Amino acid sequence: MDAEPNSTVPPDSAPRKPVAELLADAGLRPTRQRLALGELLFGQSGDRHVTAERLYEEALAANLSVSLATVYNALHQFTQAGLLREIAVDGARVYFDTNTADHHHFLLEDDGELYDIAGANVSVSHLPQPPDGLRVARVDVVVRLRRA
Fold first, then answer.
1. CATH of 19-145, one of 3.30.70.20, 1.20.120.450, 3.40.50.150, 1.10.10.10
2. pLDDT tens column, 3-34
3. Which residues contact 5 (CB under 8 A, 6 or more apart)?
4. Which of 38, 85, 105, 111 has minimal CB crowding within 10 Å?
5. Is the pTM of this model over 0.70?
């Protein structure tokens, strides 16, 4: 989803690299399906939060011949390459975020939409010490909202 006008993180105004260049820079071979899905994800201005199912529906609407499994595979490959950030909500819902910078999210529970919160606007303190040999990689805060 694009950043809303009242979002706490301004929309990305810098022009994006061509998708083929993004994939190559991330070490991914620019296959036809990766390019097509990458265009749906990264070809628009602003950052997006999508589920695999939503991206699959967008691909079908764009007359792309891909399976849901291919969409899942591509999203996970993009995530492993650092192009996307995975956000798990309620254990069952997984979103993929094109904004990989440090930030958190509002979740509108009524419709499942995510909105960015700038990382500097959330403070997390007193994290427990991780077990030996492990380090904290990232802390994701999801603030749940309901319409008043």
1. 1.10.10.10
2. 333 344 444 445 568 899 999 999 999 999 99
3. none
4. 111
5. yes
